[in-house]
Automatic annotation (TrEMBL):
Its EC number is 3.6.1.31. Pathway: Amino-acid biosynthesis; L-histidine biosynthesis; L-histidine from 5-phospho-alpha-D-ribose 1-diphosphate: step 2/9. This is Phosphoribosyl-ATP pyrophosphatase. The lineage of its organism: Bacteria, Bacillati, Actinomycetota, Actinomycetes, Nakamurellales. It is an enzyme of class 3 (hydrolase). Transmembrane segments: none annotated. It comes from Nakamurella aerolata. It catalyses: 1-(5-phospho-beta-D-ribosyl)-ATP + H2O = 1-(5-phospho-beta-D-ribosyl)-5'-AMP + diphosphate + H(+). It comes from the Bacteria. Gene3D superfamilies: MazG-like.
Length: 87
């Protein structure tokens, strides 16, 4: 299990070291258009799960949405502090 901040630290390290088997590196290399499509896809899956599926299914989809939001942030070079100041 990991927190939102821990995941962001892990993904930042992946972006820095660029391991060949990293899906995050591939997602970053795919560019913002592909990243945005994934984000919207996950948002839709959260919505559908919330309407029709179990609590655990909703939690899974939200975890994937959070991951995709972090990829967008990493792609733009935006840190979590910059996000948190708006919360
Ligand atoms: N939390 C996630 C995470 N959430 C979602 N995803 C990706 O999103 C996919 C699920 O999205 P979809 O429903 O679109 O599934 P899919 O279309 O079958 O998948 P793709 O073909 O798009 O890969 C997963 O298969 C992963 O590729 C994630 N990929 C990685 N992480 C975490 O990120 C960390 C680094 O991962 P790597 O960069 O791959 O090493 C690890 O700790 C992982 O747990």
């Amino acid at each position: 299990m990991k927190t939102f901040d821990e995941l962001f630290a892990e993904l930042s390290e992946k972006a820095r070291t660029r391991p060949a088997d990293s899906g995050t590196v591939a997602a970053l290399d795919a560019g913002v258009h592909a990243q945005g499509k994934k984000l919207l896809e996950e948002a839709g899956e959260v919505w559908l799960a919330a309407e029709h599926e179990s609590d655990d299914a909703v939690a899974l989809e939200v975890s994937q949405l959070l991951y995709r939001a972090q990829v967008i942030l990493l792609g733009r070079g935006i840190g979590l502090d910059q996000v948190y100041k708006h919360l």
